[in-house]
Each structure stands twice: as structure tokens, then as C-alpha cells.
Amino acid sequence: MDEKHIVRIVSETGMNARGVMAVAQLLEEGSTIPFIARYRKEATGSLDEVQVQTIRDLLNQFTELDKRRESILESIASQGKLTDELKAKIEAAQTMSVLEDLYLPYKPKRRTRATIAKEKGLEPLAQLILEQGDIDPMVEAEKYLNSEEGDKAVPDVVSALAGARDIIAEQISEDMVAREHLRQLYHEAGQFVSKVASGKEEDSEAAKFKDYFDWTEPVMTAPSHRVLAMRRGANEKFLSLRVAVPDEEAVALLEKLFVKADNACGVQVRLAVIDCFKRLLSLSMETEIRLETKKKADEVAIKVFADNIRQLLMAAPLGQMPVLALDPGFRTGCKLVCLDAQGKLLYNEAIYPHNGAGQAAQAADTIIALCQKYGVKAIAIGNGTAGRETEEFVRKLNLTGVTIVMVNESGASIYSASDAAREEFPDLDLTVRGAVSIGRRLMDPLAELVKIDPKSIGVGQYQHDVDQNQLKTSLDDTVESCVNSVGVEVNTASKQLLTYVSGLSARVAGEIVKYREANGPFGSRKDIMSVSGMGAKTFEQAAGFLRIRGAANPLDSSAVHPESYAIVDKMASDLGTTVAELISNAELRKKIDLKKYVTETVGMPTLTDIMDELSKPGRDPREKFEIFQFADGINDIKQLSVGMVMPGIVTNVTAFGCFVDIGVHQDGLVHISELADKYVGDPNEVVKVAQPVKVRVTAVDVDRKRISLSMKSERSEVRAALSRKTESSGSRPDNRPSMSGRNDRNDKKDKNRRNDSGGMFGSSLNIKL
What is the pLDDT of residue 719? Predict the structure, then answer.
């Protein structure tokens, strides 16, 4: 642990130095982020998971910077060019860009025009011209002429001066001050310039990038989704993309730094400056800015994805009850499975409710009989092809006491072909495995979705375009956070779910399942220590997040860590009662004076957490499940008309709005300007994934399968329309402000909607890939 890193983190984040130091130490010792945030609050000053993750990421970033620093120092030293002054500058560099600028003049490079000129012996001439003394460069150049042949030939004055300018141009391009000034210009005045690639104007595949066929936008303000969209179009050869600045401004900036005299040498330097910018620095800066904006766009997109994944994983579970699940289909039929309350497969077959009256009647009889036989309390129906039609069929059966729910089946096919599914159901068809996943997803979204690569769940924004390592780290953090915040029932959890428990590796998770299968359910948390690979450190990290329902010690089903059991025992003993009575009796808990139990290692944060847990042991932080139903009779986009108000489920939240499933096999877009009657800066302020919403259809494009939706009240829409009409006619009566208030800021963005969302109506095309 490097103290200078701690100092820098404190300076950049404003976090408490003692807390940062404690987190760094705990991470070094192998503690996980959930464990640190939940069970080491005294040491960290109650830093939360996000803050602990920030510390970890910065420590990793600074470590990488140090590795690069050492590599650069070794490289320059091996060249015999490492001076004390240069070493001090390199050691003081705080960013990778500064470090690379310092290294650039010493970085081994391919043979350039400047190196060729140096081989011809023109470097002294270049330095003489760069000094810009009152000399005639043409006269001086004559001294460097020779009659050699090949690469070392300098046949005339023009060639000599050109070579000298090549050397000067490269020297300017490697100048740290020049690069920093130009970098600032690109940040402040740089523009993304996107054009349709030659010959692609009428290409049907290029049409999805039509909004960027002639598009210019400032680098500073370009949002993440547009940066990534333009980059994708360029990568797929449909667009040409540049980052440009006004040439005259860039050249003037460099001339100010390097042209020092109004004489013949100054003219040569000015020519070198122009060549340097056009041939070297413009390309270098453009590459740097493109990488930098890509990094920032990645960060935003990854955060959007992580937020969506969190909301989806933390969606309300139906709970443990017998479920019948259907993976719908027309010609191939619906795959039907029956699961018990723990999600165990009891029965499967195919039914054909959409293949004629005879088979429909047989399918109805089958469903009714199976619901009675297995005591089914809920039916889960996948929302893919034939989903709405299958839902309509099942609802007409009027099953008493059975809840019917449409389930987002995104990723179910990925799971059905996975190693985990093959291991559990080696002899079953892929579609049967998919139906099992749909049923389990209704019972407990978190437990089922962790079996799928998060990138395959379909709630991201350009997830295949962003830095994949960074994306994986973020999604792993998110899944781990969700799993540990809910807690895991160790006697029923899958290997995949256990793998995300704090401290548990895939191997140890597998050993837990093997032990459970061989010895029966665990009776206590202490029994978990008998699992192969479960050392003291692993147990410390994992135990508080593992639950054992019905254990003799009621604390084993709570989030109280075993290291704190003695505290709870002491509390109960001091009151002359039992732990069980302490949990069930709120009046007894009120008598506890927490100050009596503060020690050097246990403070009020931990004691407060213990009391909260005793009041609701093993509580699930997820919301209560609510039944949702799509609009009856509206199953296809062709049945939509402008003005319809319909129930929907948010399937994806992006920077420019959200996508909503309204039950017509095509999600609609609620643009950010249509999310609420007030101004919305961030869609997450208003909506989250899996949230039921009411939407109004504002536009439908059947051919392009695009639906525009609004969550504004109709009254607000009328006011906004009147406001726009008044503005278009001149000015508002009496110069009064718009009745729509802050929402005008969104209304003004309507003209940019095509570019915000990838199309006039928006599309999930760029989101679900």
C-alpha cells in the first residue's frame, strides 16, 4: 500500500483519510467490497459500497500508472538520456497523458521523415533555423549538400531545407507545452464531424446511421450514446468520422509558441509549424481525443447498463410457490413445465393452443389438470413470439387462485444453452430448459438471472462497443452487490448464485453444493466450515451473507455476522431472555442500551445494524411483488393508434429515455422529453427497469417497427402544444413565461430527438444487440 496513493485519493474524493487507509488495508488483506461496506463500518467510517469501489478503482489506476512510470524510466535510462530533471518530472506526473508526453521524445519509433533527415546530417541545420537568428537559411543549407546516392543524398538546397523542416516539425510535435495547448484547443473547440461513407448513401444497412450522414457536434457536449453510435457507424464502414478544430486557430497557437522572428528563418519555422499540425499533431490529437471521449462514453454507457442490471436483479420476486411456466410458440407449440416451490422441475411437455380447435381444447385440459395436480399458484408466460396470444388463451381458462404473469424472457435462450443448464438438465431439450428459466425468473429474478452473462440480458446501451474489461468489472460488482444485499439461502442456492457471495470462489461454491447433496441441508452456519476449501478467511467474508432458514440459532437466518453473535447473546442475557424472544419482542429490544456494548472493535454503526436486523431478521430489501397485466386485445403493433393509453413495463433505461414493453412484441420509446410534466435531466430520476407505467401512444411507424410513447399527462401535452403554437406566431401574450414551466427545456430538445435516440420514433436497435 503506497501512502502517496492514499493522500491522492483523499485529495480527489474528499473521503476521510483514516477510512481510505482502512479500505486499502482491507482490500490488500483480501476482503471483498460487500464485506467491507457491511461489516467494517467502524474501520472505514461507514463508507458505502460505491465509495469502497471508488477507492479500489483509483488504487488500481494509480498502480497501473506506476507500472508505466517504471517502464518509461527504465527505457530512457537504457538510452543513457535520463537526467535528474527529467526523472523528477516523470516521477511527478499525475496522469497517463502527461507521462506519455514526457516520454514521447525518447520513445522508440519507426523510421520517420525526421529520422531520415537526421541520417543525412541535417539536424544542425534544423537547430540553426529553429534559433531564428539573422542568417540566410538558403546559404546555410548549401553547406549540407552532397553528391551521395540513395537515402543520404542531399542534392540541392530545397531538399536540405525540407529535411530540416521535417526535423523541426517532429520536434514541435513532441513538445510537451505545444501538445498541452493543442489538447486544450481540441477540448474547447473540437467538433465531431460525421459523414456518410462514399458509396454508402443508399445502403440499406447504413440507414440505421442516417442521422449521422451529415452531422457536426462539439466534442465537449456530445453525449455518450451519440459518440458510441458515430464510432459504431465508422467501425462498420458506413460513416467517416473525424475530430476537427479550426486549422487557422491551431496553426496560430503553434506559431505563437515557435515562430520568434520575422525573418527568413522564421518563414522556415512557420512552414514547419503548418506541416507539423497537418501531418503530425492533428492526427495525434485526434487519436487522443477520440480515445478520451470513447473512455468517457464507455463510463456513462457502463453506468447505464449497471444501473439497469441492478434494477432488474432487484425486481420483486413472486416467492416460493408452485409455478407452471410456458415458453410460447405457434407452429412448434408451447413448452410447458411444472416447478415446485423451490424451483425443482416436476413435469414437462409440449402443448399446441394455437394449432386448431382440437389441439387448443387438449392444451386447455392439460393446463387445468396440471394446475390441480401440482397445486400451481402462478403461471409464468414468456413475452416472446406468441406470448400475448398464449396469455390470452390461458386467461380465458378462468383458473381460480392462479396468478398469470408475463415474464421478460430475454436471455432465457442463452441460459438454456449454457454449461449450467446442461449440467442440471443434460437430457432435456433447450426449449424445456428455457421454460424452466422463465418460471424460476418469476419466482426469484435474482437467483435465476445470475446464471446468465449480464451482457446477454438485454438492458444495456452499446454494451458490445464499450471496454469489455471495464464492463465486466462493473457488472460483476453490481451482481455481487445485489446478491449480498439480498442474502443467499445456502440450502437451496445454485452454484452460480453462491459464486457471487462475498468471498466464495466458483470452486468453493461447487463444494458447498456437493456437500449439501451428500450430507443433506446445513443445520447451522457453523456447519459450513466443514466444506472443503472453506477456510477461516473465506468463512469470515461469506458467513454474514449466507442464510439458513429454520436453523436452531435464529441469527443464522439473519444478516448478523457470526462474529457478533456473542454481542446479541450478551444483550439477551442482560435482559434475562433468549435471542429468539429478543427478535420477536420489540418492547424487549427497546430496553437495550447500545452504549453498554461499545468496545474497541465494535462501535455504534455495527450495533445499530444489529438492532435493525433483529427487528426484521433476514428481511428482503426487494419490493413486494405486484401483478401486472397488459391491455386486453392489443397484441400487435398494427392494432395501435395515436392517443391510446396503455399499461407497460419498462425494459430498458437509457441516457435519452426509456423503452417500454406494451405487449405488442416491439418496445416503444419514451423520449426523455416525454417522461414527465416537469424537466427531467436523468431518466433514472423517473423510471427504472421492470417498473409498471402508464403510457400514451404518440406515433407509430409499422414498417420500421417504431413506437413513440409519452408519460406526460394529456393536459401537459395540450399546454406544451399551445405554448409552441404561440411562440411560432411571434411572442407570448403579455410576455408571460410558458405555462409548461421548466418542461420547456425538454420541449426545445424535441427538434434533436432524431439524433438523441437514433430515429424519429426511437428504437432498441442500438440497445439490444
Answer: 57
What is the Cα–Cα distance from 565 to 657, expressed in whole angstroms?
Answer: 47
CA 260 to chain centre: 50
* 195, β-bridge pairs: 214, 240
- At 43-94, the pLDDT tens digits run 999 999 999 999 999 999 999 999 999 999 999 999 999 999 999 999 999 9
**Cβ atoms of 7 and 20 closer than 8 Å:** no
What average pLDDT does the chain have?
90
Helices assigned H by DSSP within 174-246:
176-189, 224-235
Q: Catalogue the long-range contacts made by 638-641 (C-beta closer than 8 Å, 24 or more residues apart).
A: 638/702, 639/664, 640/664, 640/697, 640/700, 640/707, 641/697, 641/700
Can you give the pLDDT at residue 583? 94
Place of cell 468489472: 473
Between the alpha carbon of residue 287 and those of residues 186, 236, 297, 759, the distances in Å are 11, 18, 15, 28
pLDDT at 762: 35
Scored b (16 or more CB within 10 A) or e, 596-629 reads ebeeeebbebbbebbbebbeebbebebeebeeee
Q: Which three cell numbers stand for residue 355?
A: 394449432
**Gap between the Cα atoms of 510 and 668, Å rounded:** 42
pLDDT given for residue 147 in this prediction: 80
Asked whether residue 666 carries a pLDDT value surpassing 80, the answer given is yes
Tell me the C-alpha distance between 149 and 71, whole Å.
Answer: 40
Q: Where are the beta strands (DSSP E) in 469-617?
A: 488-489, 546-547
Degrees, nearest 5: CA angle 270-166-193: 70
Residue 348 bridge partners (DSSP):
337
